[in-house]
Amino acid sequence: MSFTALVRQHTAALRALLVLTVILGIGYPVFIWLVAQLPGLQHKADGSIVDVAGKPVGSSLIGQSFTDADGNPLPQYFQSRPSSADYDPMATTASNLGPESLIDQPDTPSLLTQVCQRSRAVGDLDGVSGARPFCTPGGVGAVLSVIGPRDGRGDVIKPVRVVSVNEPCADTTAPFLATYEGVRVECAEPGEDYTIGQIVPIRGTSKPRVPADAVTASGSGLDPDISPAYADLQVNRVAQARGLDPQRVRELVTQHTDGRTLGFLGEPRVNVLELNLALDTLAARG
Hints:
This protein is of the alpha+beta class. The protein has six helices and ten strands. It has a five-stranded mixed beta sheet, with no helix packed on it.
């Protein structure tokens, strides 16, 4: 290939690069920005920021905590859904725990134990039972390691030893279950490995009073909404803390409840930030 042909090819490539840079790197972003400034779109394009007296207090699209400096829930506010990202948009990530994560590890509670702990905490805060299936009364995962000979599918045929693997019980306390298939249930010893056994979660008979969205984080960890059931659970506590009639608080919840998108997508939801701001506005009016 001659030098002249080589120069022509590189010149053409450079022109294409410059043209595409102008179109896709400058023109297209500017066009999208201009479209986003149209009435009805600008607020969403700017992050759906919620202002109070001209001061931004959050986004209606991103959840936030309503706690004191020590992380304790403020009783006068509705609490948000749990967040594995601490409500930080820069830290949104999966928790890397799934339903099969049943056994607690050092400094890493299993997903089941996290659910149990949250359920107990919510129950204590809102004056209802925090008990739920697969949870011990102490608020950890009700999981046994069943040790014994197994069949071809890996199921234990006849237990010879059964250990409650998540409970921090000692000589003065008993496991959540006394026996399993006629075998006495033991407490786990710290540092011992019981993965040799078949891991068996015990369902129990508890019917949860605490809704699922109160004890599980969303995929992003930034969900700004809670279910109407979780909002209703918190009404009496918020009303008492603010000295309001519970029925007045329920009316506010209803006013800030959005139905299914397009009438059939998703579930009804309550935006926590907007609801709490409405409560503050009500208090300011006296």
